[in-house]
Amino acid sequence: LPSRAVVTRDPWDDLSAREQQVISRVAQGHTNREIAEQLALNVKTVETYRARAMDKLGLTSRSQLVGYAAHRGLLDDA
User: Fold this and answer.
1) How far apart are CA 35 and CA 49, in angstroms?
2) For the chain, how many helices (H) and strands (E)?
3) Could you tell me which of 70, 66, 1, 68 has the C-alpha nearest to residue 27?
């Protein structure tokens, strides 16, 4: 049997654009309040986006989030 290429889906692609924006800013060290001001959102909304995105990415801590962001190159523009 010919070997099949296993296509693994990047969980980053499952995040909404807003979740990606929030995750990038959190990883760059911005507080929820700063992110809320930057994106014209409520702080609670920012917290919800962050929690959902971290869940989708399988991350459980801010340090894991920063490591993930660094691996993706999200900190290069910071």
Assistant:
1) 11
2) 4, 0
3) 66
Do residues 36 and 48 make contact, with C-beta atoms less than 8 angstroms apart? no
First to last CA, the chain: 48
Q: What would you measure as the largest C-alpha separation in the chain, in angstroms?
A: 56
What is the DSSP secondary structure assignment for residue 59, as one 8-state letter? -
Model pTM score: 0.82
* pLDDT, tens digit (0-9, with 9 covering 90-100), for 53-70: 999 999 999 899 999 999
Instruction: Give Cα 42 to chain centroid, integer Å.
Output: 18
- Please write down the long-range contacts of 45-54, taking CB distance under 8 Å and 24 or more positions apart: 46/22, 49/16, 49/18, 49/19, 49/22, 50/19, 50/22, 50/23, 50/26, 52/19, 53/15, 53/19, 53/20, 53/22, 53/23, 54/23
